[in-house]
């Protein structure tokens, strides 16, 4: 076999014919330099045995490059799998975080969730220069209901009111169980005067959907106090003003809403 014929057969291993494609350009450059050097040596010899040895060396270089490609592909697969696992863990942690912010009885926000929601809404309203109202609702005569019907019935009354309030409010409003039979509402983009119709709408919906305990329809009512947040006012401060208004509503005869001034 002539060296020229051998060269035609080995031309496929040179970088100008079917050059391997890998993401690691440094490895590819090394491979190209080595195979180019082998091709030059093959051109310069007529010793078939030497040419065979050089071809074997070129084959070994190609296999090493292929192994490197396989390693890179395997590493990429591992990275992709790790990304999936990290994303899955992140989603699970988000779900756990959500559960930690929910009241287990009503499914509404708990105190932790209320704090987080208030910070978010207060920040947004300050950026936009819009109003934010905080309302406190308290079921009237809830202790008497518990004493007469038992605590399980009281729990069902709480979940009933929670469902009515959630159904009545806008998707942008936030509702939480503030403690016992008290509920806290965050009403973004709502001025104090605009909050009164909101509370009236909840009262009408509650009257239209009475609480059914066994075969008995039980009329639930609530008293409420509403305060509009002042600029940079904390949750504790605005809740204190809403609570004072709620106290006035209770002592004025219950089943009414008082607006804090």
Write the layout of secondary structure elements.
Elements: H1 3-10, H2 25-43, H3 48-100, H4 111-128, E1 132-139, H5 142-149, H6 151-168, E2 174-179, E3 182-188, H7 192-208, E4 211-213, E5 216-218, E6 222-228, H8 235-251, E7 257-259
Parallel strand pairs: 6-7
Antiparallel strand pairs: 1-3, 1-6, 2-3, 4-5
Helix pairs in contact: 2-3, 5-6, 6-7
Essential attributes:
single chain; 261 residues; alpha+beta; Alpha-Beta Plaits; 2 domains; five-stranded mixed beta sheet; two-stranded antiparallel sheet; 8 helices; 61% helix; elongated; disordered N terminus
- One letter per element, helices H and strands E, the order comes to HHHHEHHEEHEEEHE
Which percent range fits the helix content? 55-70%
Distance between the termini: 105 Å
CATH topology of the largest domain: Alpha-Beta Plaits
In short:
It is built from 8 helices and 7 strands; from the N terminus they run H-H-H-H-E-H-H-E-E-H-E-E-E-H-E. With about 260 residues, the chain is α+β, with helices and mostly antiparallel strands.
Outline the structure in words.
By secondary structure, this protein is α+β, with helices and mostly antiparallel strands. β6, α8 (235-251) and β7 form a beta-alpha-beta unit. α2 packs antiparallel against α3, α5 (142-149) crosses α6 (151-168) and α6 crosses α7. The chain folds into two domains: 3-90; 111-259, Alpha-Beta Plaits (2-Layer Sandwich), CATH 3.30.70.270. The longest helix has 53 residues, at 48-100. The strands form two sheets. The chain has a five-stranded mixed β-sheet. The radius of gyration is 37 Å and the shape is elongated. 61% of the residues lie in helices and 14% in strands. It has helices at residues 3-10, 25-43, 48-100, 111-128, 142-149, 151-168, 192-208, 235-251; strands at 132-139, 174-179, 182-188, 211-213, 216-218, 222-228, 257-259.
